[in-house]
Amino acid sequence: MSQAFDHASEHMQEAIDELVELLRIPSISALPEHGPDTRRAADFMAAALRRAGMENVHLAEPESGYPVVRGDWLGAPGKPTLILYGHYDVQPPDPVEEWTTPPFEPGIRDGRIYARGASDNKGQVMAIIKGVEAVMKTEGRLPINVKFAIEGEEESGGKALPNYLRDHAEEMKADAVLVADSNFPHPDVPGILTGLRGLVYTEVEAQGAAFDLHSGQYGGAAPNPFNALALVIAGLKDSSGRITIPGFYDDVIDPTPEEVESWGRLGFDEQEFLRTQIGSDAYFGEPDWSVPHRLMSRPTLDVHGIRGGFTGEGAKTVIPARAVAKISMRLVPNQDPGKIFAAFERRVQELATPGTRLVVRAINTDPPVSASIDGRGVQACKRALERAFGKEAAFLRMGGSVPVCTVFQEALGVELVITGFGLADDRLHSPDEKYEVSQYEGGIKTTIAMLEELGA
Amino acid sequence: MSQAFDHASEHMQEAIDELVELLRIPSISALPEHGPDTRRAADFMAAALRRAGMENVHLAEPESGYPVVRGDWLGAPGKPTLILYGHYDVQPPDPVEEWTTPPFEPGIRDGRIYARGASDNKGQVMAIIKGVEAVMKTEGRLPINVKFAIEGEEESGGKALPNYLRDHAEEMKADAVLVADSNFPHPDVPGILTGLRGLVYTEVEAQGAAFDLHSGQYGGAAPNPFNALALVIAGLKDSSGRITIPGFYDDVIDPTPEEVESWGRLGFDEQEFLRTQIGSDAYFGEPDWSVPHRLMSRPTLDVHGIRGGFTGEGAKTVIPARAVAKISMRLVPNQDPGKIFAAFERRVQELATPGTRLVVRAINTDPPVSASIDGRGVQACKRALERAFGKEAAFLRMGGSVPVCTVFQEALGVELVITGFGLADDRLHSPDEKYEVSQYEGGIKTTIAMLEELGA
Q1: Is the pLDDT of residue B320 over 90?
Q2: pTM to 2 decimals?
Q3: For the segment A227-245, what is each residue's pLDDT rounded down to a tens digit?
Q4: Do A220 and B300 touch (CB under 8 A)?
Q5: Which of residues 348-367 of A touch B (CB under 8 A)?
């Protein structure tokens, strides 16, 4: 297999060029006006799979939404089957003016590729494809069977892939799935995830008066939905950072001593992380828990924005009729999204003030996920990361949800192998998202090594 | 003076025709394309003052903007001097399609004149001019001295009149100013305003992380400026509607028994007002005070909007770096805007949570205005309204600010006499603005009676 490693090293410029071409496509699945771009990215993925020597490459079209890009190589009977996952859609690039170079005109500076989607997830899915391609080009075959399933709705919560997996459970039968959609916890420590936080994403709509009113004429008598929402939000999470929804923490299981011990090895520097990753002068969160605990094993609650009213220049004295807060909670393994949403809604309604009617909607819910350390895929991945990067991987939990993991687990019952080739400072979903070329190369080699480890 | 009353009654058709001619001029000061129309209205006012027998009639041209129309009659040495204020500009007529008859083609139906500016303020300033004219035509002189100052930038916030008053403080010396730019609080009760709420309009900017972050990766550790602002806002005004800024209510003076007594005569129906004017199922505000008190004599605090973050469709899990809340306070007489802003800023900073830096900016401040019930002008106006309309006036306070009142008080130190001949349903600034012919006649007679009362 060292031949494939050499092939990967020798063809890095091609791999970079191909990724840059993909990054030029603004495949923002959340914005309807980017529908044609998102479809163009799907076509690009299919072409990349064909170049990699995959068979039966096609776009599986859903009833609505964006296609799942499929392609297999099934020439190793008796050997394990691995699903290779990724997504070709990206987050919107706003605020565009804060990018150093335009989000869809990739710039390479100091060994880093800057573009929306560079790390999340185009650079990672391309690493897998180029890894498979390197083995096919050098060996003419793979040591195991693979089934690609690359979706285009990861950033917009679409249902095309979940539906596809449920409808094609037999066709998609496999032993494990490789999900490379996260990052190294430390530049010198690759990570394999054993837990992912879930998500309950809500909207709380506050309706006060029937129409916008002038604060001079009505102030002091008219309900104000912004003030009402502030009282609600302040009643969900106190000024110490603790969530005050009754029962919210009831089902949280503390991490095991082994997990806590392994986190200690990450060399996590709280001051350094605060300075470089957050850029503020203090953390805000549950004071009784260390920052790694809060990020990995503690649930939380955040407001993302509040729609409505007057936000322009100047001094318009409107009492808006309506305001809508977008509020989400991250859940940890063993918390139930339905139970948490119900507790949230109850608490919100308790906090309502006279004259303002509150409506609570669940926009999105993803249960938390956990994966076993002892699985064959997870162990193969650990060895592969070590061979590709020369660094020992740690078992971690992650703060975000990867909804597709739940779907793979529930629809197919496959082992989850969740890892990532990005770095922690890749600025996913932010201006100046980037991906290191060296991580790209390591990702390609990890894929090569993992195919071999699983085929051994 | 009954001769002047008779003259007014006998010449109402002329007065109506003259007003209709003025209403045909679309003098929209906020729209540059209506500049020539606005100047035409100024010329019209000057001609009307000359017809009324005023002397030294001229247009005082500002450096930029629209002229102040001036004209005096100063033939009563030893008698009081009254400034007569009004404005010849109007609001834009949008949405034009909602007018029954075109906004600048006045229609008279059921004793009402429908046109943009009919009530605000052309019909009221013409009532004053025609009242002065009636006395001049019948007596050949006035019982007091008058100085007209009619501006053309009231609806566009121009500075021509404020600058003129400051630059001509000696020329404009007077005992009182009559500002007739409001309306009867009830069809059977004329109103004289003894207080106008002031305004302190602020922005509170909250900066958490240095850049937008993903709540999955950073939630639980990163400061969230929306949660921080919610804690601030909830700490400014509690769930009972009481403002909790220390010292906020210290300088508030409760209304006099005479004011409270006169409010009782308004027949204010709290349920009716809630249903028709607010359209909610409950009021929100200080529970210890009745709704009229809260609207007229109590200060308040409202959030107008919060800029930043994600407010679109779907479930973007961003922890925004920054959020900006627009928050204003209405002040009542005797509260000092500078003192209140300082108390506000202090309280906001007290409520800051770790990791979020707060910056408080004053966007706009207007001091509250108060007029004494016992003033000679106010008392003369009360008697004049009663003689003209046969109805006893109430002393009221108003929720909004009328910036020109502050200017008269500060630049000239004159007594403010703030009243109005319109009705509450005149639809100022809305389609189908109207003015009752009977109110026009009453306004003319009020002016006649007020000149006499002040001259007595």
Answers
A1: yes
A2: 0.80
A3: 999 999 999 999 999 999 9
A4: yes
A5: 351, 353-357, 363-364
Q: What is the DSSP string of A157-183?
A: T-SHHHHHHHHTTTTT--SEEEEE-SB
List strands edge to edge, sheet with B112-114: B107-109, B112-114, B434-436
Please write the tens of the pLDDT for every residue from B356-407: 999 999 998 989 998 889 999 999 999 999 999 999 999 998 877 777 898 8
Give CA–CA dist A204/A228, Å, rounded: 11
For B138-167, what is the mean pLDDT? 95
Distance from CA of A56 to the nearest CA of B (A): 34
A96: distance to nearest CA of chain B, Å? 12
Best of B205, B233, B304 to disrupt the A interface (most A CBs within 10 Å) is: B304
Contacts of B318 in chain A (CB under 8 A): 304-305, 429
Three-state secondary structure readout of chain B: CHHHHHHHHHCHHHHHHHHHHHHCCCCECCCHHHHHHHHHHHHHHHHHHHHCCCEEEEEECCCCCCCEEEEEECCCCCCCEEEEEEECCECCCCCHHHCCCCCCCCEEECCEEECCCHHHHHHHHHHHHHHHHHHHHHHCCCCCEEEEEEECCHHHCCCHHHHHHHHCCCCCCCCEEEEECCECCECCECEEEEEECEEEEEEEEEECCCCCEEHHHHCCCCCCHHHHHHHHHHCCECCCCCECCCCCCCCCCCCCHHHHHHHHCCCCCHHHHHHHHHCCCCCCCCCCCCHHHHHHCCCEEEEEEEECCCCCCCCCCEECCEEEEEEEEEECCCCCHHHHHHHHHHHHHHCCCCCCEEEEEEEEEECCEECCCCCHHHHHHHHHHHHHHCCCCEEEEECCCCHHHHHHHHHHCCEEEEECCECCCCCCCCCCCEEEHHHHHHHHHHHHHHHHHHHC
Average pLDDT value over all residues in chain B: 95
B276 touches chain A (CB under 8 A): no
CB contact under 8 A, B284 and A314: no
Question: Which among B214, B286, B399 has the least Cβ separation from residue A216?
Answer: B399
CB contact under 8 Å between A284 and B224, yes or no, is yes
Contacts of B324 in chain A (CB under 8 A): 311
| ipTM of the complex, rounded to two decimals | 0.84
Distances (CA, A) of B204 to A430, B226, B304, B396, B456: 24, 11, 12, 33, 54
Residue B1 has pLDDT above 90, yes or no: no
Write the residue in A214, A241, A306 that is nearest to B306 by C-beta. A306
User: Taking CB atoms and an 8 Å limit, are B229 and A227 in contact across chains?
Assistant: no
Q: Determine contact: A213 vs chain B, CB below 8 A.
A: yes
Contact A355 B216 (CB under 8 A): no
- Whether B220 contacts chain A with CB within 8 A: yes
- CB crowding A11-39: b at 16 or more within 10 Å, else e: beeebbebbbebbbbbbbbbbeebeebbb
Instruction: List pLDDT tens digits, range B417-433.
Output: 999 999 989 988 888 99
pLDDT single digits (tens) A58-81: 999 999 999 999 999 999 999 999
Closest Cβ–Cβ partner in B230, B278, B355 for A234: B230
B 283-342: CB under 8 A from A: 283-286, 291, 294-295, 298-320, 324-326, 328, 330
pLDDT at B89: 97
Per-residue confidence band for A373, with pLDDT thresholds at 50, 70 and 90: confident
Collect all residues of chain B within an 8 Å Cβ-Cβ radius of residue A209. 278-280
- Nearest CA among A402, A336, A340 for reference residue A179: A402
A266 pLDDT more than 90: no
